[in-house]
Design goal:
Layout lengths: L1 H6 L5 E4 L5 H9 L4 E9 L8 H4 L5 E10 L10 H13 L14 H17 L10 H4 L9 H8 L2
Parallel strand pairs: 1-2
Antiparallel strand pairs: 2-3
Length: 157
């Protein structure tokens, strides 16, 4: 959180789930200079005797409560959907993170490189349908999307 806070110049709204360590981490990184809310989801009971195909499906969300932790976040915008979608995309693009697979990195440095390459691709090469450009273009960091060749060239080695 300290690293994230140092990289941001404007006050932001931050959302998380209810993991107990998040409020302290956010306080340590941002102090009071953040609008922070938590989304707490309550799940229904799951049937442990399900067949194998449905056993890995998530339980049904029966309630979602938004709570202001710090500052004045827009309560209607307290959500974890964006990071959940990003995590899903990462798992689909980077098979090292998929459960029940034999695709793994023997060296932690290789794992870090694979994840970094995926994030670079998603932010600088891949055009996102909702914004019709790359996130780097939307943030004003780049004026045009990179090609895969440019990504490889800019990564060095």
């Amino acid at each position: 959180m300290e690293d994230l806070a140092r990289r941001l110049s404007l006050r932001v709204q931050l959302s998380s789930d209810a993991m107990i360590s998040y409020p302290e981490a956010v306080e340590g990184g941002f102090g009071s200079e953040v609008d922070y809310g938590q989304l707490v989801k309550t799940y229904g009971l799951t049937n442990l005797n399900k067949d194998a195909a449905s056993r890995y499906s998530p339980a049904e969300v029966v309630k979602a409560e938004r709570t202001v932790i710090n500052g004045m976040p827009d309560v209607s915008r307290i959500t974890t959907s964006h990071v959940e979608k990003q995590n899903h995309t990462l798992r689909m693009h980077c098979r090292r993170l998929t459960r029940l697979t034999n695709a793994f990195s023997k060296k932690f440095e290789n794992f870090e490189a694979a994840v970094a390459l995926n994030f670079a691709y998603c932010n600088f090469v891949k055009t996102h349908g909702a914004i019709r450009m790359t996130p780097a273009q939307a943030a004003g960091v780049e004026s045009s999307a990179w090609t895969v060749a440019e990504l490889i060239e800019r990564c060095g080695e």
